[in-house]
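[job 4471] stage=fold_predict status=RUNNING
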Amino acid sequence: MKWDFLPGEQTLGDMILYEFNGGNQVVEATPSLLHLPQFRVFTTRAEDGTFDMEVFSPLGMPSYIACFARDSDFSRDAEQQPLIKRMSIMCNTTQKKSNTILDANEHELYHITQRNAHPRANYNRYKYTKRQVVLLSAEDIGMMGVQEYQKEKRSVYKFSGVVNETAEVSVLMIYNNRGILVKGRQLSVVRI
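[job 4471] inference complete, writing structure tokens
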């Protein structure tokens, strides 16, 4: 990753996903669950100010979807980025009207993002218009039903919309419904 646009010295420290804080650890005493967040990114180019792409998800319904438009010239990365003005999302797997966002404008997308963003992120309207990221949760586009959400292994989504200038539009799917179950000496991947 390029961090040139950040002011000052750039350092990236270790990310700790699990830490044992002492005590007696008895092997096979209790099963442990370690979360395995996974990410898939899909990109398309919006030449004429519109984008339309179909995305295949091999891991089923993502917990979150982040959509953003960026200028392809990385030297402009610290400047104001293109904005998604309108966006529609449809789950082509279920093709249910309840699993869609239809023609949401930038203000609706901002309010959905505000609802899903962590308060400590301080992601206000100024930051949104300068470097927009639309953050949607599974509930925002329909969970395909609780039973289907847990069992569905593959799903297809259609993303379409309008941007205010030529840009690369990216869709980042975030899955946090998987984990490693450690039961004694056995390891298995489970859906949570």
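[job 4471] summary: The CA atoms of residues 14 and 113 lie 28 Å apart.
[job 4471] exit 0
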